[in-house]
Amino acid sequence: MRAYPIKTRYIKKGENPIPTILGAIKNSNIKLEDGDFIVLSEKMIATAEGRFIDESQYNPSILAYFCYYWSKYLWGYLLGKILGLKEEKIKNLRNLPKNETLNHKEAIIKEVGLLYALKPYAEGGVDLTNVPGTYACLLPKNPKYWAKKLKEEIKKEFNIDVNVMVADTDATYRIFNIYITALPYAIKEIKSGLGVIYFILGKLAERLKIGGFVGCTPLAVVGDKLDTYTLVRIAFISDRVHKTIKNMEELYKKFGTYIITEEHLEKLEHTPVVIVKMKEKFNIQKIKK
Questions:
Q1: What is the mean pLDDT of the chain?
Q2: Which of 32, 50, 177, 285 stands the most exposed, by the fewest C-beta atoms within 10 Å?
Q3: How many CA atoms lie within 13 A of 218 on its CB side?
Q4: 129, 245, 273 from 97: Cα distances, Å
Q5: Which of 246, 219, 243 is nearest to 231 (CA)?
């Protein structure tokens, strides 16, 4: 399979993304064929649904302080090393900005749950990048609706029968033949709902060589029935070709601030849509996450 990123403009909160997606596909000069996968970023769908929260409005509780110190010290100096987190991630955990992290952890606790706030990063799929101000973006409520809607519109517009996936960048792990993710939900073939517990189990499986990281996480798929491994790899390859800021440190390096504005967002290149050609060959190096 081979993935082609499709450039779009920045999709704003509450905006229907489908006309923009159709226009971007038309302008891409990539010919759609039956069986192709259209992979949508979960952020674009969540933005369309208006899934923003203002983290500055959350007052940190004792649990938020606990999660902050848990991430900074337990993950930053002990668990991160034991479970093989990348050195860059460990460094970032040790340098967590206190006030912003406290507000963030409280928002995670309130909106998603404690089991997600105890994860060291990418907690519960709540995203701080590519959203304006002190906002964060929750996972979409109904990704399958948008996947189905886009599939129908592509059929009308191009008379092509494609598959549509909404995918999150967060990891899917395998323990023997069981697939798990630390996200609150995923496609039914991937077990979810236990947050940091599944994250630790996935990392342990990697260390013990009984499984480990497989790819990114499909939240919804409409179309052909494919095996779980293939779907997870489609999500992973799509994520690798996205051109976007993927963490807060990248944001700081680019703009000198942890607070992004819509003006910043409009200056960035956005490729929230990826066309995956299933019949084309593409070799990608196995990357741990």
A1: 89
A2: 285
A3: 28
A4: 15, 19, 32
A5: 219
